[in-house]
Amino acid sequence: MIREEICFNEYPVEYLVFKIEETASIKEFLELQQKVWTKYLSSFDAFVSEEIWINKENPGEIHKIVVWKSMDGWKDICPIELKEKDEEFKKLYNKPFQITRRLHKEYNHGLYRVKLFYK
Fold it and tell me: InterPro entries of this UniProt entry (predicted)?
């Protein structure tokens, strides 16, 4: 099945790059991303999709893309709840990692998904 979606609505993109020190724990990191973050974020009407990519040329580098229906919907999420989820994730993962880039901020929230094609 081929699917192509061209969006005339601009869907804002949140783009995070993580660096984890213990590359053997990538699977655990991804499972906890699902358990904590995907479960939480997908509960909001503004959530559209999430993708996670691994850079095999740079071990431990993980790219996370979250697509939102609107900037307002994304920014309406309670900052206190986000902080609580962040603390929950850090407690469960309990290994060194950092967010090395927030490309959505680097580009002044100018990243938008306008086309999706997959087979």
Answer: CHP03792, Dimeric_a/b-barrel
Helix, strand or coil for residue 88?
helix
DSSP 44-79: STTEEEEEEEEETTSTTEEEEEEEES-HHHHHTS-H
Domain extent listing, the chain: 3-118
Q: Which CATH topology does 3-118 take? A: Alpha-Beta Plaits (3.30.70)
Cα separations in angstroms, 24 against 28, 60, 71, 85, 93? 9, 9, 35, 23, 13
Residues 14, 68: contact at Cβ < 8 Å? yes
Question: Alpha-carbon torsion 69, 75, 81, 87, what sign?
Answer: positive
Q: Single out the residue of 64, 76, 65, 80 nearest to residue 12, CA to CA.
A: 65
Q: Is the pTM of this model over 0.70?
A: yes
